[in-house]
Amino acid sequence: MSNELREHLIRLFESNIRLDGRKFTDYRPVKVEVNVTNTAEGSARVMIGKTDVIAGVKVEVMEPYPDTPDEGSIMVGAELLPLSSAEFELGPPGQKAIELARVVDRGIRESKCLDFKKLYIKEGEKAWMIVVDICTINDAGNLLDASSLAAIASLRNTTFPEYKDDKIDYKKKTNKKLELKDIPLSVTVIKIGDKFLVDPDSDEEKAIDTRLTVASLSDGTLCALQKGGDYPLTSEDIAKMVDIGIEKGKELRKLVK
């Protein structure tokens, strides 16, 4: 990012305004659609401004891990399509895709919103694996929050297919829904200069000094944190960013209830 653009952003911030006129803790318009594809057990599309992400859930039967013989599990993957950004390329997942998947996975897993014991079929032999695939349609900034929202919205409308005689019939849906105890959501708070912002657009992301992704539950319980950026954070910075993340999470949560 050019020094001129960064300096321009900081001058704007001194007037308590952003490039697009938003306040520091304002999101762009957020839209959530569910059941956007018939080929997944659950799916959702999230648009935050021009950022566009789709998440789909597939369920598979696996052998439980040896240390958790009576539990199922979850796996999150992310694909950053070249059509969504000139910065993304075809090939194996890069660092950004791996981090995106891990942050979304951690927010869900550490929230304990999924009872993995309810996902086992036969102890030590068979259990359900919940697979969440995230796909970017357009990257206009803040893929982390859009992906978190899409993942949890797709999990909330996941329905199990028929499982009979050790075989899954994906064409036959049952009435069994995937149970979630809560709605964990992640909010990424960024710091540029001495200002804290949410929902950065593409230009603001290029100017980030540091960021903190805050995953929380409905009652404000903190689930997970993920720091990014090159600069350190003070304890005061972290406390303020966590407060912002939890408060904005409550607002986003209304969109998936």
Secondary structure blueprint with pairings:
Layout: H1 3-14, E1 30-34, E2 42-48, E3 51-62, E4 73-79, H2 95-109, E5 120-122, E6 126-138, H3 143-156, E7 159-164, E8 167-177, E9 185-192, E10 195-198, H4 202-206, E11 210-216, E12 222-229, H5 235-253
Parallel strand pairs: 4-6
Antiparallel strand pairs: 1-2, 2-3, 3-6, 5-6, 7-8, 9-10, 9-11, 11-12
Plain-language structure description:
- Strand 5 and strand 6 form a beta hairpin.
- This protein has helices at 3-14, 95-109, 143-156, 202-206, 235-253; strands at 30-34, 42-48, 51-62, 73-79, 120-122, 126-138, 159-164, 167-177, 185-192, 195-198, 210-216, 222-229.
- The relative contact order is 0.18.
- The strands form three sheets. Strands 1, 2, 3, 4, 5 and 6 form a six-stranded mixed beta sheet that branches.
- With 257 residues, it is an alpha+beta fold.
- The termini are far apart.
- Helix 2 (95-109) packs across helix 3 (143-156).
- It has a single domain (3-253), classed as 2-Layer Sandwich (Ribosomal Protein S5, domain 2).
